[in-house]
Amino acid sequence: MTSETKKKSKIAIAGGGLLGRLLAWRLSQQKFDITVFEAGDLSTPSGACWAAAGMISPLSELVRTEKQIYVQGLQSLKLWSEWCTQLESQTGRSVEFRRAGSVLVAHGKDRNELLQFLRELQGKLGESAKEQVESLNSQALAALEPALGSFEMGLYLRGEADINNHRLLPLLLNVLRQRGVTLRERTPVSCHQKQISFAGEQQQFDCVIDCRGLGAKEQIPGLRGVRGEVMVVESHEVVLQRPVRLLHPRYKLYAVPRSDGRTVIGATQIESEDLSPISLRSSMELSSALYSINPAFAEARIVETRVNCRPATEDNLPLIQNEEGLIRLNGLHRHGYLLAPAVVQQVEEQVAQQLLQVA
Ligand SMILES: Cc1cc2nc3c(=O)[nH]c(=O)nc-3n(C[C@H](O)[C@H](O)[C@H](O)COP(=O)(O)OP(=O)(O)OC[C@H]3O[C@@H](n4cnc5c(N)ncnc54)[C@H](O)[C@@H]3O)c2cc1C
Prior knowledge:
alpha+beta; FAD/NAD(P)-binding domain; D-Amino Acid Oxidase, Chain A, domain 2; 10 helices; 20 strands; about 35% helix; globular; binds flavin-adenine dinucleotide; glycine oxidase activity; FAD-dep_OxRdtase; EC 1.4.3.19
């Protein structure tokens, strides 16, 4: 068989959330025949990916997680910037990937939270802390983020970024459609080596990639859901330029502004797989933390609330399992946007290795 007549390797991707879409997009640039199986509707995503705020914060996360998350986060930041440029040229639309850093603040009485955070970050970053983290006095803070004028100090984490997931996910879907990727919606599947099964049917593939998030719970021991709640508010009076985090002993908050004047605020982290609507307590805590950043938020309108569960492993680290004809990736927990490109790139390499013999 000449290289032109070789049969394309068939890949099944189970789950059309963040990992599934990103992987399908990347692999569709190579000569593979790809089918995506999604339990729900791809145009109204139901996974954790849609509820997320899209923060890409390797530095903020470094203080509370393993160094691996930071390292893979930096790798992902670089990839996001390349991949978003590609996706924008393929679709002619902006993904709204913003690399404007993020700002951390704490109220006067919680100043120690901020100082402790800075000490821990400096301890972990060593010399490079100087380039990556800047302490701001009230004037410097007001110049960078005028809406935070009432705070005495803040920290500017220069390299952090965020992405508008409500633009990214539909754009990825558009490109998959344009490229002729087979999309099987409303089709919940089970994953096996080289085989997908659903509704009493089996289909054979050269490789199956399981990206079902919490949907893979039965096959991945210890996988659990961690409930997260966010609210979306609209304010004409307060405009933030970049993600802002409020450090507080009890009520932690981030606020991620979007280009349409809306701000995503969140997120709770509750050890529960309950998917019922946001609780009164969570909505009050998020609202009052936001109001404490700038009282002009009092007139903001709550336009949406979102609840979903982050897929997390026992050690809260990403999981990539590779056996012949079946790759499982999962456990991105609260780091889906932070880590997805690095994880996807690793899997792309494994797929190429597995299928080299077949192609
Ligand atoms: C409130 C909240 C805020 C968050 N904020 C951030 C943030 O700011 N930054 C960040 O980095 N991360 C954030 N995350 C985490 C991030 O959203 C997740 O880590 C990420 O979405 C995980 O991606 P995934 O593709 O593994 O799973 P998902 O995005 O959940 O996708 C899994 C997909 O598989 C489908 N599926 C399930 N079962 C089956 C089946 N049997 N057959 C076929 N398909 C199936 C589901 O319908 C879904 O579409 C947040 C999460 C939440 C809940």
